[in-house]
Design brief:
Layout: H1 6-32, H2 34-54, H3 62-82, H4 87-92, H5 95-100, H6 105-134, H7 139-143, H8 145-169, H9 176-204, H10 209-252
Helix pairs in contact: 1-6, 2-3, 2-6, 3-6, 3-8, 3-9, 6-8, 6-10, 8-9, 8-10, 9-10
């Protein structure tokens, strides 16, 4: 019987390891329910605050406000999620053990990005219907569900791909929450801007919506490739730096 090509075997192994790592993180999260509950509650608070603030806007001004509400909420929830995505490895000091295990570095990245994306999509499942209920201009979200899902998925994926890379780089740093927020928002601005403009074209019924969506796909692919290429060096450098600091502290004591 002919053996499958090495590339096919490697891809299957990568997919299996990614699924196992992501499933383990999701299972622990469903058991603790800490991140999901925090992100969900934060999403509701942001939605209500923005809804009360902009509820008096006229019909003509709402298409300018709704995209900003949606993607600002995603940015806030994403920042909250990414500050905690490597917390279990940091608190249990299992990052070095994970790197020593026979696991593809890319599988670690894809699993963490996948979990982040799942949390963001869950929050958008609250945000989008809430916006439809609060604003008449958000009706196209309900009228074009496939286009809305594609837009939300691609925008959240763009945020998760680049955010996971820098969350890994700061996973063992002191003051990582502040550092990640300072670094994250400028770097995710292009993705958020593309998503915001695409959302505006969807709400306006602009014929160029598919073109904006294709640009967002290209941005997702570019960020995924670059982040996957840099992830191993970022993660190994982070774990190595943490080990050296601990050894240095042990010698001083």
């Amino acid at each position: 019987m002919p053996q499958p090509p090495a590339a096919t075997t490697s891809l299957r192994s990568l997919a299996r390891q990614t699924w196992l790592l992501a499933r383990n993180d999701l299972r622990q999260e469903m058991r603790d329910f800490e991140l999901v509950a925090t992100a969900g509650f934060f999403t509701l608070v942001v939605l209500v605050m923005f809804g009360l603030s902009f509820s008096t806007l006229g019909r003509y001004a709402q298409p300018m406000a709704v995209p900003g509400i949606l993607w600002l909420a995603v940015a806030f929830v994403g920042s909250l999620t990414l500050t905690r995505i490597f917390d279990r490895e940091r608190e249990a000091d299992t990052l070095r053990a994970l790197l020593a295990a026979p696991v593809h570095r890319l599988a670690i990245y894809l699993a963490k990005a996948g979990v982040t994306l799942a949390v963001l999509l869950g929050c958008c499942a609250i945000l989008v219907p809430g916006l439809v209920l609060m604003f008449d201009a958000a009706a196209p979200f309900a009228e074009r569900p496939l286009a809305t899902f594609s837009l939300v998925f691609l925008g959240c994926a763009a945020y998760a791909t680049i955010g996971t890379l820098f969350a890994a780089g700061l996973s063992t740093s002191g003051g990582k929450n502040v550092l990640l927020s300072v670094i994250l928002y400028p770097l995710t601005s292009p993705a958020l801007m593309f998503a915001l403009v695409s959302t505006r074209t969807l709400l306006d019924g602009h014929p160029g919506f598919e073109g904006y969506l294709s640009q967002l796909v290209a941005l997702d692919i570019l960020q995924l490739v670059v982040s996957a290429w840099l992830f191993e060096s970022v993660l190994v450098g982070t774990a190595g730096g943490s080990s050296r600091r601990k050894r240095s502290a042990g010698r001083r004591t």
